[in-house]
Amino acid sequence: MHILLVEDDPAMQTSLQRALARRGIHVSLCADGLQAIAQWQALRPDVIVLDLSLPGLDGLEVLAALRALQATTPVLILTARSTVGDRVLGLNAGADDYLAKPFDLDELEARLRALERRTLGGNQAAHAAHHTSFGTLRLDAASGAVYHLGLPLDFTPRERALMQALLARPGQAIAKERLYELVFPGEVDVKYEAIEVVVYRLRKKLSGTGMDVVTLRGLGYLLKPTPASATA
User: Fold this and answer.
1) Residues 28-62: pLDDT tens digits?
2) Beta 151-152 vs 211-216: how paired, if at all?
3) DSSP letter, residue 136
Protein backbone atom coordinates (compact mmCIF):
# COMPACT_ATOMS: atom_id res chain seq x y z
CA MET A 1 0.00 0.00 0.00
CA HIS A 2 1.16 3.55 -0.75
CA ILE A 3 -0.16 6.40 1.39
CA LEU A 4 0.37 10.14 1.27
CA LEU A 5 0.81 11.50 4.81
CA VAL A 6 -0.06 15.20 4.98
CA GLU A 7 1.28 16.26 8.38
CA ASP A 8 3.35 19.31 9.37
CA ASP A 9 4.83 17.88 12.58
CA PRO A 10 8.32 16.53 11.67
CA ALA A 11 8.42 14.17 14.64
CA MET A 12 5.02 12.69 13.74
CA GLN A 13 6.10 12.39 10.10
CA THR A 14 9.25 10.47 10.96
CA SER A 15 7.70 8.15 13.53
CA LEU A 16 4.72 7.24 11.37
CA GLN A 17 6.80 6.74 8.25
CA ARG A 18 9.15 4.35 10.06
CA ALA A 19 6.41 2.48 11.91
CA LEU A 20 4.24 1.96 8.82
CA ALA A 21 7.24 0.99 6.69
CA ARG A 22 7.87 -1.89 9.09
CA ARG A 23 4.31 -3.01 8.32
CA GLY A 24 4.82 -2.97 4.56
CA ILE A 25 3.22 0.42 3.90
CA HIS A 26 5.10 2.95 1.76
CA VAL A 27 4.65 6.52 3.03
CA SER A 28 5.19 9.70 1.01
CA LEU A 29 5.43 12.83 3.15
CA CYS A 30 3.94 16.28 2.71
CA ALA A 31 3.78 19.14 5.23
CA ASP A 32 1.84 21.82 3.35
CA GLY A 33 -1.76 22.04 2.22
CA LEU A 34 -1.04 23.41 -1.25
CA GLN A 35 1.72 20.89 -1.80
CA ALA A 36 -0.63 18.09 -0.80
CA ILE A 37 -2.82 18.64 -3.85
CA ALA A 38 0.21 18.60 -6.18
CA GLN A 39 1.54 15.47 -4.47
CA TRP A 40 -1.78 13.69 -4.91
CA GLN A 41 -1.81 14.53 -8.62
CA ALA A 42 1.77 13.32 -9.07
CA LEU A 43 1.71 10.18 -6.89
CA ARG A 44 -1.91 8.96 -6.95
CA PRO A 45 -1.56 7.16 -3.58
CA ASP A 46 -3.92 4.44 -2.38
CA VAL A 47 -4.95 6.46 0.70
CA ILE A 48 -4.36 10.01 1.95
CA VAL A 49 -3.83 10.54 5.69
CA LEU A 50 -4.67 14.19 6.30
CA ASP A 51 -4.03 16.42 9.31
CA LEU A 52 -6.41 19.36 9.70
CA SER A 53 -3.98 21.99 11.05
CA LEU A 54 -1.71 22.73 8.09
CA PRO A 55 0.14 25.74 6.68
CA GLY A 56 -1.03 27.04 3.32
CA LEU A 57 -4.46 25.45 3.16
CA ASP A 58 -5.92 23.72 6.20
CA GLY A 59 -7.00 20.10 5.98
CA LEU A 60 -10.66 20.82 5.24
CA GLU A 61 -9.68 23.16 2.41
CA VAL A 62 -7.36 20.50 0.99
CA LEU A 63 -10.16 17.96 1.19
CA ALA A 64 -12.61 20.29 -0.55
CA ALA A 65 -10.07 20.99 -3.31
CA LEU A 66 -9.41 17.28 -3.86
CA ARG A 67 -13.10 16.47 -4.13
CA ALA A 68 -13.57 19.42 -6.51
CA LEU A 69 -10.90 17.79 -8.70
CA GLN A 70 -13.00 14.59 -8.70
CA ALA A 71 -10.43 12.78 -6.57
CA THR A 72 -11.86 9.46 -5.36
CA THR A 73 -8.79 8.55 -3.29
CA PRO A 74 -9.89 7.60 0.25
CA VAL A 75 -9.00 10.23 2.86
CA LEU A 76 -8.46 9.45 6.53
CA ILE A 77 -8.38 12.53 8.75
CA LEU A 78 -5.80 12.19 11.51
CA THR A 79 -5.96 15.11 13.93
CA ALA A 80 -5.94 16.29 17.53
CA ARG A 81 -9.39 17.83 16.99
CA SER A 82 -11.52 15.13 18.53
CA THR A 83 -14.95 16.63 19.24
CA VAL A 84 -18.04 15.18 17.63
CA GLY A 85 -18.52 18.45 15.75
CA ASP A 86 -15.04 18.23 14.25
CA ARG A 87 -15.61 14.64 13.15
CA VAL A 88 -18.96 15.47 11.57
CA LEU A 89 -17.43 18.47 9.80
CA GLY A 90 -14.62 16.35 8.36
CA LEU A 91 -16.88 13.53 7.22
CA ASN A 92 -19.36 15.92 5.67
CA ALA A 93 -16.50 17.58 3.79
CA GLY A 94 -15.76 14.29 2.05
CA ALA A 95 -13.46 12.34 4.37
CA ASP A 96 -13.84 8.56 4.40
CA ASP A 97 -12.66 8.01 7.97
CA TYR A 98 -11.53 9.97 11.03
CA LEU A 99 -9.02 9.06 13.73
CA ALA A 100 -8.19 11.33 16.68
CA LYS A 101 -4.73 11.78 18.17
CA PRO A 102 -3.38 10.12 20.20
CA PHE A 103 -4.15 6.86 18.40
CA ASP A 104 -3.14 3.21 18.42
CA LEU A 105 -0.91 2.20 15.50
CA ASP A 106 -2.71 -1.11 15.07
CA GLU A 107 -6.01 0.71 14.71
CA LEU A 108 -4.53 3.14 12.17
CA GLU A 109 -3.18 0.26 10.09
CA ALA A 110 -6.51 -1.58 10.24
CA ARG A 111 -8.39 1.51 9.06
CA LEU A 112 -5.92 2.06 6.22
CA ARG A 113 -6.22 -1.56 5.10
CA ALA A 114 -10.01 -1.32 5.18
CA LEU A 115 -9.98 1.81 3.00
CA GLU A 116 -7.60 0.13 0.56
CA ARG A 117 -9.77 -3.01 0.32
CA ARG A 118 -12.88 -0.93 -0.24
CA THR A 119 -11.21 0.99 -3.06
CA LEU A 120 -9.71 -2.07 -4.73
CA GLY A 121 -13.04 -3.89 -4.57
CA GLY A 122 -14.84 -0.95 -6.13
CA ASN A 123 -12.26 -0.61 -8.89
CA GLN A 124 -12.48 -4.31 -9.67
CA ALA A 125 -16.26 -4.23 -9.92
CA ALA A 126 -16.21 -1.24 -12.25
CA HIS A 127 -13.45 -2.71 -14.39
CA ALA A 128 -15.04 -6.14 -14.64
CA ALA A 129 -18.32 -4.65 -15.83
CA HIS A 130 -16.59 -3.40 -18.98
CA HIS A 131 -13.49 -5.59 -19.41
CA THR A 132 -14.39 -9.21 -18.68
CA SER A 133 -12.20 -10.98 -21.25
CA PHE A 134 -8.45 -11.53 -21.41
CA GLY A 135 -6.68 -13.93 -23.73
CA THR A 136 -8.68 -17.17 -23.86
CA LEU A 137 -10.52 -16.39 -20.61
CA ARG A 138 -13.82 -14.63 -20.00
CA LEU A 139 -15.25 -13.53 -16.66
CA ASP A 140 -19.01 -13.38 -16.15
CA ALA A 141 -19.22 -10.35 -13.88
CA ALA A 142 -22.72 -11.26 -12.66
CA SER A 143 -22.05 -14.86 -11.61
CA GLY A 144 -18.29 -14.77 -11.07
CA ALA A 145 -17.85 -17.79 -13.37
CA VAL A 146 -14.72 -17.97 -15.54
CA TYR A 147 -14.83 -19.52 -19.01
CA HIS A 148 -12.10 -20.84 -21.31
CA LEU A 149 -13.18 -20.75 -24.95
CA GLY A 150 -16.80 -20.79 -23.79
CA LEU A 151 -16.38 -23.71 -21.37
CA PRO A 152 -16.62 -23.07 -17.60
CA LEU A 153 -13.54 -23.72 -15.49
CA ASP A 154 -13.96 -25.55 -12.18
CA PHE A 155 -12.54 -23.38 -9.41
CA THR A 156 -12.87 -23.48 -5.64
CA PRO A 157 -14.21 -20.25 -4.07
CA ARG A 158 -10.68 -19.12 -3.18
CA GLU A 159 -9.33 -19.94 -6.63
CA ARG A 160 -12.25 -18.05 -8.15
CA ALA A 161 -11.60 -15.04 -5.93
CA LEU A 162 -7.96 -15.02 -7.03
CA MET A 163 -8.93 -15.42 -10.68
CA GLN A 164 -11.42 -12.55 -10.46
CA ALA A 165 -8.80 -10.28 -8.90
CA LEU A 166 -6.28 -11.07 -11.64
CA LEU A 167 -8.84 -10.68 -14.43
CA ALA A 168 -9.94 -7.33 -13.02
CA ARG A 169 -6.44 -6.01 -13.79
CA PRO A 170 -5.26 -8.15 -16.72
CA GLY A 171 -1.56 -7.99 -17.46
CA GLN A 172 -0.90 -5.90 -14.34
CA ALA A 173 0.94 -7.13 -11.27
CA ILE A 174 -1.07 -7.25 -8.04
CA ALA A 175 0.79 -7.38 -4.74
CA LYS A 176 0.61 -10.62 -2.80
CA GLU A 177 -0.66 -8.66 0.19
CA ARG A 178 -3.67 -7.34 -1.74
CA LEU A 179 -4.48 -10.75 -3.16
CA TYR A 180 -4.29 -12.27 0.31
CA GLU A 181 -6.86 -9.75 1.58
CA LEU A 182 -9.22 -10.54 -1.32
CA VAL A 183 -8.86 -14.33 -1.18
CA PHE A 184 -8.95 -14.61 2.64
CA PRO A 185 -11.10 -11.63 3.71
CA GLY A 186 -11.26 -11.33 7.48
CA GLU A 187 -9.55 -14.72 8.04
CA VAL A 188 -6.93 -13.59 10.54
CA ASP A 189 -5.86 -17.16 11.40
CA VAL A 190 -4.77 -18.00 7.85
CA LYS A 191 -1.03 -17.71 7.32
CA TYR A 192 0.20 -15.15 4.79
CA GLU A 193 1.94 -17.88 2.76
CA ALA A 194 -1.42 -19.56 2.08
CA ILE A 195 -1.90 -17.33 -0.96
CA GLU A 196 1.02 -19.16 -2.60
CA VAL A 197 -0.88 -22.44 -2.31
CA VAL A 198 -3.93 -20.95 -4.05
CA VAL A 199 -1.68 -19.56 -6.81
CA TYR A 200 -0.08 -22.99 -7.29
CA ARG A 201 -3.47 -24.70 -7.61
CA LEU A 202 -4.75 -22.05 -9.99
CA ARG A 203 -1.70 -22.48 -12.22
CA LYS A 204 -2.40 -26.21 -12.47
CA LYS A 205 -6.01 -25.62 -13.49
CA LEU A 206 -4.96 -23.06 -16.10
CA SER A 207 -2.57 -25.54 -17.71
CA GLY A 208 -3.49 -25.93 -21.37
CA THR A 209 -5.58 -22.74 -21.53
CA GLY A 210 -2.78 -20.59 -22.93
CA MET A 211 -2.81 -18.47 -19.77
CA ASP A 212 -0.60 -18.51 -16.69
CA VAL A 213 -0.14 -16.78 -13.36
CA VAL A 214 3.33 -15.22 -13.40
CA THR A 215 5.33 -14.27 -10.31
CA LEU A 216 7.15 -10.92 -10.43
CA ARG A 217 9.57 -10.85 -7.53
CA GLY A 218 8.87 -7.90 -5.26
CA LEU A 219 5.76 -6.87 -7.23
CA GLY A 220 3.30 -9.76 -6.91
CA TYR A 221 1.41 -11.84 -9.45
CA LEU A 222 -0.11 -11.15 -12.85
CA LEU A 223 -2.17 -13.04 -15.40
CA LYS A 224 -0.38 -13.42 -18.71
CA PRO A 225 -0.75 -15.41 -21.97
CA THR A 226 1.85 -18.14 -22.26
CA PRO A 227 4.24 -18.07 -25.24
CA ALA A 228 2.81 -19.72 -28.35
CA SER A 229 5.50 -22.38 -28.22
CA ALA A 230 4.35 -23.41 -24.75
CA THR A 231 0.81 -24.09 -25.86
CA ALA A 232 1.51 -25.56 -29.30
Assistant:
1) 999 988 888 888 888 888 899 999 888 888 888 88
2) unpaired
3) T
